[in-house]
Amino acid sequence: MEAFSDGVIAIIITIMVLELKVPHGADLAALAPVVPVLLSYVLSFVMLGIYWNNHHHLLQAVQHVDGRILWANLHLLFWLSLVPFVTAWMGENHFASVPVAIYGVVLLAAAVAYYVLTRALISLHGKTSTLATAIGRDFKGKLSTGIYLAAASLSLLKWWIGFSLYVLVAIIWLVPDRRLEKRLTE
Amino acid sequence: MEAFSDGVIAIIITIMVLELKVPHGADLAALAPVVPVLLSYVLSFVMLGIYWNNHHHLLQAVQHVDGRILWANLHLLFWLSLVPFVTAWMGENHFASVPVAIYGVVLLAAAVAYYVLTRALISLHGKTSTLATAIGRDFKGKLSTGIYLAAASLSLLKWWIGFSLYVLVAIIWLVPDRRLEKRLTE
Amino acid sequence: MEAFSDGVIAIIITIMVLELKVPHGADLAALAPVVPVLLSYVLSFVMLGIYWNNHHHLLQAVQHVDGRILWANLHLLFWLSLVPFVTAWMGENHFASVPVAIYGVVLLAAAVAYYVLTRALISLHGKTSTLATAIGRDFKGKLSTGIYLAAASLSLLKWWIGFSLYVLVAIIWLVPDRRLEKRLTE
Amino acid sequence: MEAFSDGVIAIIITIMVLELKVPHGADLAALAPVVPVLLSYVLSFVMLGIYWNNHHHLLQAVQHVDGRILWANLHLLFWLSLVPFVTAWMGENHFASVPVAIYGVVLLAAAVAYYVLTRALISLHGKTSTLATAIGRDFKGKLSTGIYLAAASLSLLKWWIGFSLYVLVAIIWLVPDRRLEKRLTE
Q: What's the ipTM?
């Protein structure tokens, strides 16, 4: 399951670059319309990098899987697979309100799918398992979900509120968090 | 063989999203023509997820392979590789009768290829092997093949008959089936 | 090296399907222009399947690699990576003479690259190694190279001579060959 | 981390071929506009091959990773993922000055990202580790970075200066390692 998930996330993160359409001109001005697409690509690259990172750590602690886990995992991959689509839509429309909001909806769905996956894993491994204590209360996960919900709504007012909130989530996760790693090495 | 197959299925399931063409408008109305493509994407994602799941379990029980198995496996992957094409054709034509029928023909061919693969595996491992008893009579596989055949024909009358039958196959497989897992853990 | 090569071949074999452009109509007639592209896709799928199969068996017997081997391998992957391009060109032009000939040139280059790779492996492992005896005189490899050369030239006269010769190469390799497997299991 | 990185590099190196647009004509003349794109594809294929090769060797010596390493690695993959985009831009504009310069900027950024990754790995493993002594002064790495900087600037004067310098970097890395490195470290 880990190899398959790693493969799918690797493909998603890479094919996003196919949405960077090659400009027709050969000067710097020709790159201008690509800039917002590139910017949204950078954001999504970081977001998917965070998912890969967390997912990778999560699966390290997994000892057995069943059909429910496999499908909870595919459900997460489904929402992540929509990221290239909403990234391109957001970028090509220069961060218009609706695409920025829909981008948040997809991230929100992925966050919920990740939560469902962790719950399924805990229910299979038991509440006293290493996995369960490692996941803990998952404060960052719940916080992110809340921020995505706010971001998706507020982008309809001003696109940059939503966008800033997505960047905020990225920063929250990029700040080193040795909690899970620590518990796993103990 | 498992790594290669997992890789191919991971790529197929992911590149399908490239068929979701980014709409030009920036409002919700611009998303409307994407809805049927997204719907057919969801269906195919689930179908390929089922194949990955079954294929993954099947290969766990495999102990040795020969050239015939490798080609039976590639034959299956060939039909699965056509899924993105028929998915996009079906979605972009808003589930017109012929594309819905052809979608069923590809699924039917994949189901037959899967059956051929299991037969080749059983003939190599012997009828009394764990693998053979694990596969058993493969009731679900035969049922699915029959439904695909019916669906491909009936879609020509009404598209939604075929579509509903595809959904039915998905439901049949999504219902937990611990038979194979049980036999394997024994 | 094996994982990377398997990954690249899996991607090449799968992205080829992206060249099957979704037709605009929704009836069977709309599929007509896709037929030659599909036919050339089937041929290339089999060809790449043969390469994957042989390459996979070859690497099983490899015990150590150096920089030269890595580059000989990348050289082979380079030519294989051009297969989707020439496949699409051949298919979209309904097997016109020049594209059919260029298709053969790419296959010829891949066959030469495969030969160079086996020579580099033998020179590293020694002429009396299992690998060297397993590869042996590589009659099929040399025969294929000759047929590709003939096919590339003769397609300029009649496209179907070249095409038939490509099919002939595929058949030569699809006929079970337990020589390498036998030597490896000894 | 190695499997994921290998996967991403394998995908990047392969999807580049999707930028080779199938020409509409069926004669050799129709291939003419593809030639510069093919040429830039060959260059980038070699460049990514060098990265894969070095990265692969680097990770062999790695004994443990932390969050910082994972992100330094993703940072490298990000810049490599932009290679298909700048390759296509450079090729489709027949090596115009600005695209050739931007190509160098992306390679420069990737070289810096690789350097940052090696520093992070050394700081984690210690200055006396096998890894640190294996990386050594990394003369070739620093030299390449310098050449990229020069190439990116000089392409604005004459495109072929930049292009020749990229080829020079490729040659520096393709020349077998040990002899040269030994001489350089003496």
A: 0.89
